[in-house]
């Protein structure tokens, strides 16, 4: 294990730790071969690698569980080519913006299977997919590789509904309605992941009880993703920029402290005035 320590301009110590997997440690034989034969990957970029096809969406009662028993659940089978390159059991693949774990691989038919958890079915529209539907696919990004989109986790925050679409020269615009709790994280010119695609927000209206935002697709992108095939009323998986959520969480902890300090300052000012 290697460790670097650097002091930032603020005086805070920044510690970066790099670990290297020891061959054979804690890994099953199948996992060892998978790790050594493919690059390590982490998160997504929102740059769709290909459009795959849904083979089947099935409710099953014989899914193997961790203790050797079986249980019920939803299983999705998808056909893809690019995402099968370097795929291994347990790897992450984004399907319409949802980070899913490959549970079965069929290299001969270029198909992979993933399980859909109840939370995934609640948060996304994947449960409404059917055989033959096109889906956006992306492998998790390689550590240290380029990121032409933004940091996409594959953790969908909710579903948006297309309420309008129009063409401006060779650009295709969409107007999407989302729940009020999501709109506060969506800002003009900010990042957003829609069906797994990294896009830039154009306009935002957060003032009404039915908030909306718009985004635009250039001609090249229109040919590479599934969004242009969707009409008014169509559903989109929405993942807001995670930096907005972290910022809100950090401020939530800081603001009370600032208010407390301001109150103490005012108290001291009043004491000085009364002397």
TrEMBL record:
Q: Which SUPFAM superfamilies match?
A: Riboflavin synthase domain-like
- The chain positions of domain Lumazine-binding read 43-150, 151-251
Question: Recorded E.C. number(s)?
Answer: 2.5.1.9
Signal peptide positions on this chain? 1-24
Which CDD domains does the annotation name? Riboflavin_synthase_like
Q: Tell me which UniProt keywords the record has, alphabetically.
A: Repeat, Riboflavin biosynthesis, Signal, Transferase
Q: List the pathway annotation.
A: Cofactor biosynthesis; riboflavin biosynthesis; riboflavin from 2-hydroxy-3-oxobutyl phosphate and 5-amino-6-(D-ribitylamino)uracil: step 2/2
Q: Name one GO molecular function term.
A: riboflavin synthase activity
Pfam families named among the record's database cross-references: Lum_binding (PF00677)
Q: Does the keyword Chloroplast apply?
A: no
Alphabetical list of Gene3D superfamilies matching this protein? 2.40.30.20
Q: Which InterPro entries match?
A: ATP_synth_asu-like_sf, Lumazine-bd, Lumazine-bd_dom, Riboflavin_synthase-like_b-brl
Gene Ontology BP annotations: riboflavin biosynthetic process
Tell me the PROSITE patterns matching this sequence.
LUMAZINE_BIND
Role description: Catalyzes the dismutation of two molecules of 6,7-dimethyl-8-ribityllumazine, resulting in the formation of riboflavin and 5-amino-6-(D-ribitylamino)uracil.
Write the protein's name: Riboflavin synthase
């Amino acid at each position: 294990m290697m460790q670097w320590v650097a002091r930032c301009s603020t005086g805070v110590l920044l510690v970066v730790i790099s670990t290297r997997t020891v061959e054979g440690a804690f890994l099953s034989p199948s996992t060892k071969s998978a790790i050594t034969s493919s690059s390590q990957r982490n998160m997504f970029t929102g740059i769709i690698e290909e459009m795959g096809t849904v083979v089947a969406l099935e409710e099953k009662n014989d899914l193997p569980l961790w203790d050797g028993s079986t249980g019920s659940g939803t299983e999705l089978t998808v056909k893809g080519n690019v995402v099968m390159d370097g795929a291994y059991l347990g790897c992450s693949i984004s399907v319409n913006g949802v980070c899913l774990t490959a549970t079965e691989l069929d290299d001969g038919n270029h198909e992979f299977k993933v399980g859909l958890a109840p939370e995934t079915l609640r948060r996304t529209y994947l449960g409404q997919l059917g055989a033959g539907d096109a889906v956006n696919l992306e492998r998790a990004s390689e550590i240290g590789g380029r990121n032409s989109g933004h940091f996409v986790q594959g953790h969908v925050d909710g579903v948006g509904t297309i309420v309008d679409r129009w063409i401006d020269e060779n650009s295709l615009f969409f107007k999407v309605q989302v729940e009020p709790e999501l709109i506060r994280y969506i800002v003009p010119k900010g990042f957003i992941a829609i069906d797994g695609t990294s896009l830039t927000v154009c306009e935002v209206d957060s003032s009404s009880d039915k908030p909306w935002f718009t985004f635009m697709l250039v001609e090249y992108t229109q040919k590479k993703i599934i969004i242009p095939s969707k009409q008014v009323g169509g559903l989109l998986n929405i993942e807001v920029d995670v930096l907005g959520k972290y910022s809100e969480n950090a401020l939530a902890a800081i603001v009370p402290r600032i208010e407390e300090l301001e109150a103490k300052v005012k108290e001291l000012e009043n004491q000085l005035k009364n002397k």
